[in-house]
Amino acid sequence: MSKTISLDGSVAVVTGGAVGIGAVYVEGMARAGASVLATDIDEVAAIALAKRLQADGLQVESMRMDVTDPAQIDEALRFAQATFGGVDILVNNAALFTTLLPMRPFTEIESEDWARVMKVNVEAPFLCAKAALPYLRQSGRGRIINISSTTALTGAPTLLHYITSKGAVIALTRALAREVGGDAITVNNIAPGLTSSPTALSTVDAERFDAAAATRAVKRHQQPEDLVGTLLFLASEASSFVTGQTHVVDGGAFLQ
Ligand SMILES: NC(=O)c1ccc[n+]([C@@H]2O[C@H](COP(=O)([O-])OP(=O)(O)OC[C@H]3O[C@@H](n4cnc5c(N)ncnc54)[C@H](O)[C@@H]3O)[C@@H](O)[C@H]2O)c1
C-alpha cells in the first residue's frame, strides 16, 4: 500500500466495496488517511471488512447499498455526510463480472442478461454520480473514479455485454468530466487488466491468468493491490488537473 499519497481529511464512498478489489480500495484509501464508507449489496461482508479495519484503527464504516436503487444510494450518501461530514470521493467499483462467467459467445447472451449488466455496470455509476454531485460540489475538490476494464480497449472476445458496459464507462467518464469540471470535480476511470481478485481466482481458468501475464511488459499476475497507487493518485489533490482519462493498469499489456 502506498504511504506517499495522503488522503487525510477526505471522505470516500466505495460501491461494491465489501470484497475483492473494492475491499482493497477501501483499505488503501483508509490507510492513506481517508474516512471510508464501504457499501455493497453483500452487507455481511461489508460489516466484516469494516470491523477488521476499525480494529486496525482505520476510519471505515459499512452500509448495505444496492447500486441500482436510488433510495439506497441517497441513504448511503446521507450516512456518509452525517458520520464523516461530507463526501469528497466516489469510487464506482460495483459491477457484474465474475458472476457472468463462464465466457460464452454473444449468440448465447439473452436480452435480459444484457439489460441486467447495463443496469449495474453503466446505469449505476450514472445514478451514483448524480446523487453524489451536491456533496462533491460542496467538497470543492470532488473526485469520481469509475472502474472500466482493458477488455473494452482490446475488444476481448466473449462476455460482449460486460465488455460493452465497460466501454460505456469510458465514454461516461469523458462526457461527465466535461459536465462537472467547472465545479472542480474530476472524473477518471481505471482500466485494470485481468486481476487476481478472490472471485476472479475462483471463476477464471488458471491458464488465463498465465496467458495474461505472458502478454505483459511486467510478466506476472496482477494483484488487486497493483491498482491502489493509481486510485490514490486519482483520489488525491495531486491529480486535480487530470480528468476524463482512462488509466490503464495492467503491467503494460495494452499500450496506448
Ligand atoms: N477482477 C478482474 O480481473 C477485473 C478486471 C477488470 C476490471 N474489473 C472490475 O473491477 C471491479 C471489481 O472487480 P472484482 O473482481 O473485485 O469483482 P467482484 O465480483 O469480486 O466484486 C464486485 C462487487 O460488487 C458487488 N455488487 C454486485 N452487484 C451489486 C449491486 N447491485 N449493488 C452493490 N454492489 C454490488 C458485489 O457484491 C462485489 O462485492 C469491477 O468493476 C470489475 O468489472 C475487474
UniProtKB/TrEMBL annotation:
Superkingdom as given in the UniProt entry: Bacteria
Segments passing through the bilayer: none
GO molecular function, one term: oxidoreductase activity
Pfam families, alphabetized: adh_short_C2 (PF13561)
UniProt entry tagged with the keyword Oxidoreductase: yes
Keyword Membrane: no
Keywords: Oxidoreductase
Name recorded for this polypeptide: SDR family oxidoreductase
Organism in which the protein naturally occurs: Streptomyces bathyalis
Taxonomy of the source species: Bacteria, Bacillati, Actinomycetota, Actinomycetes, Kitasatosporales
